[in-house]
Amino acid sequence: MADPLESIIDAHGGMDYWRTLTHIDVDMSVRGLLFRSKRVRPLNHVRLTVDTRSPHTVLHDFPRSGRRAVLHGPRLVEIRDASGALVEARTDPRGAFADPRRRRHWDALDFTYFCGYAMWCYLTLPFLLRHPGVLVAKSAGPGGTRMTVTFPEDIPTHSRTQELHFDVTGRLVRHDYTAEVVGSWARAVHLCRDYRRFGDLWLPTSRRVYPKGPMNRPLPAPTLVAIDIHNAWPRRSPGTPQAGCP
Fold it and tell me: For residue 46, which of 121, 119, 114 has the smallest C-alpha distance?
């Protein structure tokens, strides 16, 4: 019997294409209740770069123009200026969220960690499911495929166990998790819509996150996070044509 994960990966561009990529650049806007509650300004047409091989993310011109916020795996975040000089850094960024002040306010390094790992996971799924140590339990139904995923400690993510829902075409349409850095109560439903092709990569360009309510259904409000991807550029190894790039 065919592995449903192979069909799912093919529906997003295919593993052969994915292996040629080194980075993905996106132009995106992000807003929502989470931003207001943590006193983080919304992001409007910002550029973000994720590494396709390991959890490394760069948010350009954050927290202000000319600076860049960087996630280096699970244990380091930093901010550098336009010359590349280090402005500030934090080791064990996840542990910092135990401070009660994070309930009311996130600083730039807090947001760097949260945004960095979240966008890295979002943009590398479903290919991330082939990462060593990721455990996947699959179940099929009339509406598509549901996967319960357990992530290893070397992948920074919302919670170790998450659920992914794929429609009959193989596209990711729903992603359930607990945003543990927000709180153990922060159970969320993340809906993915409006797929577009960038190079040979298919990405949902509209993402909306809602609280999970009774019967595991998303509540209609509030919108915790709204992500709109305006454009994306898959970057391939040097010497390989850069499909989809301007």
Answer: 119
Q: Which domains does the chain have, with CATH numbers?
A: 4-236 (2.50.20)
Task: Please tell me whether residue 120 adopts helix, strand or coil conformation.
Answer: helix
Q: What is the pTM of this model?
A: 0.94
CB atoms near residue 230 (< 10 Å): 10
**Residue 193 backbone dihedrals phi, psi, to 5 degrees:** -140, 175
Structure tokens at 2: 């065919």
How far apart, in Å, are the Cα atoms of 75 and each of 19, 33, 188, 220?
Answer: 25, 27, 24, 35
Beta bridge partners of 30: 43, 227
97: pLDDT strictly greater than 50: yes
Residue with tokens 């336009």: 82
Q: Are 218 and 212 in contact (CB under 8 A)?
A: yes
Rg (CA), the chain: 17
Please state, as a whole number, how many other Cβ atoms lie within 10 Å of the Cβ of residue 151.
21
User: For the residues 189-218, what does the mean pLDDT come to?
Assistant: 97
Bridge partners of 190, per DSSP, are: 175, 209
pLDDT digits (tens, 9 = 90+) for 60-83: 999 999 999 999 999 999 999 999
Q: Please tell me the distance from the alpha carbon of residue 32 to that of residue 35, in angstroms, as a whole number.
A: 6
Please state the φ and ψ torsions of residue 209, each to the nearest 5 degrees.
Answer: -115, 130
Residues 6+ apart with CB under 8 A from 32: 42, 209, 222, 223, 224, 225, 226
Give CA–CA dist 8/24, Å, rounded: 20
Question: What element of type H or E holds 34?
Answer: helix 33-37
